[in-house]
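ok trying again, last paste got cut off:
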Amino acid sequence: MGRKPLRRARLILALLFVSALVTARPGAAGQEGTGPVLNRVDVRVDGRPAPRPIAELIPFKPGEPYSAAAIDRVVKQVFETGLFSDVRVTRSGQDRIDLAFELARNLIVRKVRFPGAKVRGSRLLEAMESLRPGTVFTQELLPKAVDEIKEGLKREGYFQAVVESSVRRLPDAPQVDLTFRVSGWKRYRIGSLEFRGPIVVAAEDLSKRMKTRKWGLYIPSRMDKDIQSLQAYYTSLGYRRADLQQVPETFDDARGMVDLALEVQPHEKITIVVNGARVPSSLLAPIWEERIFEEWGLAEGEARLLSYMRKKGYVYAVVTSRIERPENEIRVVHDIAPGKKYSIESISFEGLKSFSEQNLKKELLVTEKSLFFSLLSYDRLFALPREIEYFYRTQGFLEARAELGLPRTEKGVKAVLRVTEGPRQVLQSIVFSGNHLLSPEEILKQLVEVQGGPYFPPNVRRDLGVIENFYLNRGIRGTTVTPRVEAAGPNLFTLTFEIEEGTPVAIQNILVAGNRTTRDSVINKELQVRKGGPADESQIVESKRRLERLGIFSEVRTKEILTEPGRETLVVTVQEGEVNYAGVGLGFESTNDISSGASLAFRPRITGEYIRSNVFGRAAQVGLIGQFSDIEERAVASWTQPYLFGAALHPSLLAWVEKEDRTSFTYDRRGVGLNITRPVTPQITLFGTLRWSRTDLSNLQIPESDIDRRLQHYSTTAASVSAAVDRRDDIYNPEKGRFFSVQTEVAVPILGTESDYWKNFFKFQYLRTLAPQVIFSLLTRVGLVTGEISVPERFFAGGSYSFRGEYFDYLGPKDAETGKPTGGRMLFLVNAEVRFPILPMLKPLSGAAFFDYGNVFPYISDFSVKDLEAAVGGGLRYRTPLGPIRFDVGWNVYTPPPEVRKKTAYFFITIGHMF
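nice, full thing came through this time. structure:
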């Protein structure tokens, strides 16, 4: 028998043996084909049954095939949420397998306390980076936190402190409170303070500039500030490269003393001399603070000086520079020949073909002169060539160039901007390839570039991001876009976006974590995405913004975890903020007019406020506000919440008592009200109010005939609706945009009340930037009322927030006998103002010129253009985050008879825009 038949026989015998084994175990073959299956899946968190959203993170179900690889993948997904510190999986059974998932939540640091420390807790928290409030707690981080606290204490002068840590876990939440008890520290007094190195400044002089003194307590943080102060002192003396380092301390524990030393290397003195003109030292000093090539330093200094002089109007200034080397000194000398200062007489353009001079000036916001001042500075003038080139490039003129010429005239210089346009490059067509999930028409609507429009490469890069975001906002993840530009003819191009589409992803589950007090229902109402819906990126971002807007969370995080192809879990993690806020304010106001000539007298104004937020975990807020001064007393209690019967109407329930002394009367009022706010869009908001109030009038300075009723005690039941459209760029410091609001209030004689009137108020504001930092503002206000209305509800005007040519409340009708204002049933006011920069180095400060026009009329039928009064004036503005501090001086241009009053100037100091 040959070898091949022998091998064949052996193979047949092996197959028969395997077949016999399979036959000997009935059912085994079928079992091997299907493999083990899941019998039961149990998910627990911290020893308790997992809530449904967390349980759904484990997508296994009884009857499914068992897969170790799938379990490993799910465990990784659980860790990706960032909510758990440990995941343990226990398996039991062979063919029918029971799985038990035991998840341990991350413990979050809620509060940190430092009992026994003589240092403010905020400073120790700054030193401690490992376990701050809101971070994840682990036992392994405790020793590091203790070391950080010891280092923080040491910097404040408490050495060798003993720090003992303790941890308290909250029973009903995965949070811990940390306590670091401080004791047993040592403090050292300074036995000696020595200065080492080349002596160019007397040690006594240096010591006087330090807060660290001999025999005083040694505080390392104070020493660091002293070194910075000495560094600045050496710089002021010309030693711009001086180096000061502290030598390691020498401690004497037995005496409780420490010896200190500073190593000083002043290096060479650098003196900067500018002859021929006065320039700020900050212009040139930074150039020489580091070691540089001296030739470059001279050239850079000349360039800065020429730019500075030209911006001041010395357009033909000449700068020559040199370096002199006295012993241990470098003298940088710049000689300036400023020449004559010229003003800009006119601006003209040459070489314009595609745009008119008028259109180009409008696009660049170039205005040569106005009635009061020049709107175009040399600073702006020298920047215009680059602005022109950029504008042309956005229009497809990629080779455009602009140059500034300044030929002299008899009175100044003429600015001539010479433009070389070059060819215009046009996008002939925009093509998409690889897109199947979204149509070309949908994508094209999103783009900045348009077919037949100018070709501008930065817009192509911007459109690339727009397309990718458009796919994300449709729930499609992993899309990549590659642009390709090809020539289609002379200065014609075809733009192709090659799209490699990702995968549509749906939200399988939404997991909310971190809320201890806040109810899940409150958070779910703010979420703009739903289970089963597309993973719209824009709606996920909007959900985060809405949760932050509730004002009850110090941090909101969102994370998307892909659980399987085309499905993801959205993890929303919140950190609840402080629920209590208390504040006290103290201010002063003048009791007489600045223009009266008498010495100013001031009275105090005290404001107190307490707010309790997230009441009952519903994002509701309770507030108490009190305000007290010599002329007013006011207390307001409020309840605010984000929803009314499940609708996002933002209701506020108010109760108040107030008393105020006005010019013509005093009123004492108490009432209750319900306010409802409904944002329609980010720019449009609707308001509604219902209120009841009881008012007592006293100290009347006008006859009762001027009050529409015999009673001086009256009640009012009123309802009002209003709408506001706000398209300004900033609420507190707007520079451009529009604002419009309309309000209608109706008071009806029900519930035992007497008032019966209809009141309307319109407001329109327009702002426009005329030139950089030159802002034009226009405000128009119209008020109309009919029916029986008492004095406090009438319209009054006059003062810094309405008409700056009159005292507070004094614009409009007055009583013939007392001369006190009686208010009116019609208000018409127009306020125009231009704000402009004064000092370039002090940008928050600006000047203003204003024109106020209007009046208050007893009845609507009394309105007459001839009776409108006007005021002109000017002032200063200092910008703050909450609006400007204003100083205004106004004159009423209305000329009254001599026996009525005298013309005078009105002075006002206020905070906030009248606009």
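cool. The chain has 15 helices and 41 strands. Residues 269-337 form a domain with the Ubiquitin-like (UB roll) fold (CATH 3.10.20.310).
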